[in-house]
Amino acid sequence: MGLHPKGYDLSLDRIRRLLDVLGNPQARLPPVIHVAGTNGKGSATAFCRALLEAQGLSVHVHTSPHLVRWHERYRLGVKGGPGRLVEDELFANALRRVADANGGKPITVFEILTAVTFILFSEQPADVAVIEVGLGGRFDATNVIDKPAVSIIQPISLDHQAYLGDRVELIAAEKAGIMKRGIPVVIGHQEFDGAKDVLISTAERLGCPLTVFAQDFLGYEEFGRLVYQDEFGLMDLPLPRLPGRHQIGNAATAIRAVKAAGFPVTDQIAEKAMLSVEWPGRLQRLTEGALIEHAPVGAEIWLDGGHNPGAGEVIAEAMAAMEEKQARPLHLIVGMINTKDPIGYFRAFTDIAHEVYTVPILGSDVGLDPVALAQSAAEAGLKALPMSSVGEALEAIRTRSADSAPPRIMIGGSLYLAGNVLAQNGTIPT
Questions:
Q1: Nearest in space to 305 (alpha carbons), one of 289, 320, 283
Q2: What three-state secondary structure class fits 333?
Q3: Are strands 218-222 and 225-230 parallel, antiparallel or unpaired?
Q4: Which among 143, 244, 296, 330 is placed 20 to 30 Å from 89, CA to CA?
C-alpha cells in the first residue's frame, strides 16, 4: 500500500505487460466463472462456490475487497472440501514474484493483487475458478481472461459514477465489457430496463448464448421454499442460508450460471449448496464477541457491507421482512466512504428505522465524518446522531432502549466498516 497508488486506474495495458513478464498465468487457469455487477457479485460468487463444492469439485475463488485480512481475496480449492484461504508463505512468495516482474514500474495495488490471483490459481490445482470483478468490467484488471466458461452480470445500479458514468446504461456498458464473443452469458435480476437492454444487446452483438433472469430462468419463494425454474425443469429447494429475499435471485442466477459453465446441478447438489453457502459481512448475524458485549441484552444484530442506494434497498427490504415476522425497533449504525451516495442509501430506511448512529471507519482516509454523515441521514428524513465508534453507538442504543423491547440493530454502509466490526469483535473470516 505504501509502494503503489490506491484505487483504480482503469486500463489493461499495465496488467497485460506485467502478466506477459510472468509468462501469462491467466492463460493457464481452470475453467473460469467471471462475475460482474454493481450489487450481488459476492453473493453470486458464494453461491457458485457452494454449488460446485457440493459436487465434490475443488474451487478457486477470488473476491474483492477483503474484510479483515488480505488472504480472504484468495480461496484455494481443495478436492472434496470447502477450500482454504491462501497461506502466508504462498501469498508472500507470489507477491514477491509479481513485484520483481513489475520492476518498479507504475501500477496500482489492485493490479498487483490481480496478478497474484493468476499466479496462485494457475499453479495450484483446481477444477474451476470463480473470479469476481473488482470495479466495472471492461477495463478491470481481471478482464484479461480471454475465454471464461461463463460470464455473469449481476444487478446494475448507480455506484462508482466517477469511474463508470452517471447513468445505469453507461455503467451497464462497462460491466458488459467482460462478455467475450461466443461465450455464455447469464444476466441476473435487473431493476432498470435500460441496463438490461444494454446487457442483452451487447450479448447478442457478440453472439453469446444468453439467459436472462425472469425471461429464461426464474427463482422465487413459495411456501417457505425456493423454487428454481428454467427450460430444463423445476427444483423445489430450501431457502438459502443467506438471509434476504434478494438472495433468492442471486441463488437462481448462480444455478443457471453453473449449468451454463457445463457443470451439472441436480436437486441434491442445489439443496446441499443452499444449506451450506456462506458469505461474511452480508446480512451476517452477530451473536457474540468483544464488540457485541456493548449491545443491549437480547438485541438482534446484523452486519452488512452494502454501500450504495441499490444495496440500501435490498437491506431495508430484508429488515422489513424481519419486522413482519418479529416486531423490534430498528436502529442503524452506519459508516461510509466519501465516494458513495449516503442520502440515497439512507432513503431506503426512512419508513422503517427508529434512528441512525453514524460512525467513522477506522484505518481509512476516505471515510465520511460522522457529523456530515448524520446530516445526510437527516436530509433523508431520519433522526441521526454522530458517534465516535461502533462500541459507543451500541452503548447509546443500550441506554436509550433500556425500558423498551430488545432492538434490532443493523450495522452497515461500507465493507470497510464491516471489516472493522469483524476485527474488533474477534469474528475473523476463515
A1: 283
A2: strand
A3: antiparallel
A4: 143
To which residue does cell 470447502 refer?
Answer: 82
Distance in angstroms (rounded) separating the CA atoms of residues 214 and 190 = 9
Q: Which three cell numbers stand for residue 70?
A: 488480505
User: Whose grid coordinates read 470483478?
Assistant: 133
What pTM does this model have? 0.93
Q: How far apart are CA 430 and CA 416, in angstroms?
A: 17
Nearest by Cα to 425 from 33, 168, 92, 68: 68
pLDDT one-digit tens code per residue, 107-147: 999 999 999 999 999 999 999 999 999 988 899 999 999 99
Pairing of strands 74-76, 84-85: antiparallel
- Spatial distance between the Cα atoms of 326 and 320, rounded to a whole number of angstroms: 10
Max CA distance (Å), the chain: 65
pLDDT value for 135: 82
Q: Residue 51 corresponds to which cell in the numbers above? A: 454449488
% of the chain beyond a pLDDT of 70:
97
Domains and CATH numbers, the chain: 12-276 (3.40.1190.10), 284-425 (3.90.190.20)
What are the Cα distances from residue 36, in Å, to 155, 239, 345? 9, 24, 21
| Model pLDDT, residue 162 | 45
Q: Which residues contact 262 (CB under 8 A, 6 or more apart)?
A: 31, 149
Alpha helices of 212-281 — where are they, by DSSP H?
Answer: 246-260, 267-276
> Between residues 307 and 171, which one has the greater pLDDT?
171
Whether the Cβ atoms of residue 391 and residue 424 lie closer than 8 Å to each other: yes
Residue 280, CB half-sphere, CA atoms under 13 Å: how many?
A: 22
Q: Which whole-number Å values give the CA distances from 269 to 59, 238, 259, in the listed order?
A: 15, 12, 12
Let me know: does 64 contact 414? Beta carbons within 8 Å: no
Write the single-letter amino acid at 352: I
Phi, psi of 272, deg, nearest 5: -60, -40
Q: Name the residue among 271, 243, 247, 224 with its Cα closest to residue 51.
A: 271
**Rounded distance, CA 313 to CA 378, Å?**
18
